[in-house]
Amino acid sequence: MLPQRAGIGLKPEHFRDILECKPEIGFFEIHAENYMVAGGPLHHFLGRIRADYPLSIHGVGLSIGSEGGLDQAHLLRLKALLARYQPDSFSEHLAWSSHGGTYFNDLLPLSYTHKTLDRVCLHIDQVQHFLNRRVLIENPATYIEFVDSEMDEADFIKEMVLRTGCGLLLDVNNLYVSAVNHGRDGNAMLEALPLHDVGQIHLAGYFEDKDSDGMTVLIDHHGAAVSDAVWSLYDSALRLTGQHATLIERDNDIPAFEVLMAEAQWAERYLAGHLVRPFLTDEPRPL
Asked: What residues are paired with 8 via a beta bridge?
């Protein structure tokens, strides 16, 4: 289990900084697919860093929601990676990214039907059995909704968790992005989720765009600092769930390591506030 602290996504740009400075940080997280090779510099540095820090592994390619079966070769590579590093947590997305042997560089949305639910639960059961561990499934950031959906996202996730025993990776930025894009209340969406099954929290930044009608659309691009609105929703989440390991995600426009550490330290202050009392300050958030 990850410590109830803040962590940072591990990037090659920061390997040497981490090894030289040994920062005080709760954990690091990697994307599984970046390490599905036998050797090379990524493994050299990860092995050294893993020796000193807890590790979370986050998958982006299992395609849990795909209509086809799971990719067995991908599962084998994933199992070998988990055996090699023994991470404290493994998570994946509630999405699909492959069809008929074609792989897409996107996490694509699902229609929330009973048929989709059966397929997703089957795939999660297969993954958990094959890996012999509980998997955390991340709530998605969505930009469209399907007219054939038979339930809302929260009910879909509740049933998924109940039927499979998986945990929830609560991505607060995804929740906020979806709330704005669909004109809903983020706090109400948060409260509807199975929060007792949260195993980890993610925070990230978004990009604000306009659609063809000039309406605001938020894009989950992981290329900016966490916004004030997402920090506020995170505070609400902690009030409901208590402390949980919290990751600062940054996958584009990677800043200096010190910038990410400042965001992680801000998350630590929120976490500490929910151990004793809400943290109140006029100090500006890191940019």
From this structure: 28, 248
Report the 10 Å Cβ neighbour count for 240: 15
**At 208, is the secondary structure helix, strand, or coil?**
strand
Length of the chain: 287
- Name, in order, each residue with C-beta under 8 angstroms of 222's C-beta and a sequence gap of 6 or more: 204, 205, 249, 250, 251, 252
Residue type (1 letter), 86:
Q
Give 211-269 pLDDT, tens digit per residue: 777 778 898 898 999 999 999 999 999 999 999 999 999 999 999 999 999 999 999 99
Judge whether 113 and 65 are in contact, CB under 8 Å: no
Count of Cβ atoms closer than 10 Å to residue 241 Cβ: 18
| Element housing 117 (H / E) | helix 114-131
Both structure tokens of 225: 């600092």
Reply yes or no on whether the pLDDT at 17 is more than 70: yes
* Structural domains of the chain in order of their starting residue, each with its CATH number: 6-273 (3.20.20.150)
Going by pLDDT thresholds of 50, 70 and 90, the confidence category of residue 104 is low
27 pairs with which residues across the strands? 7
What's at 222, amino acid-wise? H
pLDDT tens track for 121-143: 999 999 999 999 999 999 999 88
How far apart, in whole angstroms, are the C-alpha atoms of residue 18 and residue 114?
46
Q: Going by C-beta distance under 8 Å and a sequence separation of 6 or more, which residues neighbour residue 16?
A: none
Contacts 24+ apart (CB under 8 A), 215-221: 216/180, 217/143, 217/181, 218/141, 218/176, 218/177, 218/180, 218/181, 219/143, 219/177, 220/141, 220/173, 220/174, 220/177, 221/252
Q: From CA 201, how far away is CA 170, in angstroms rounded?
A: 5
Under 8 Å CB-to-CB from 85, ≥6 apart: which residues?
46, 47, 50, 55, 57
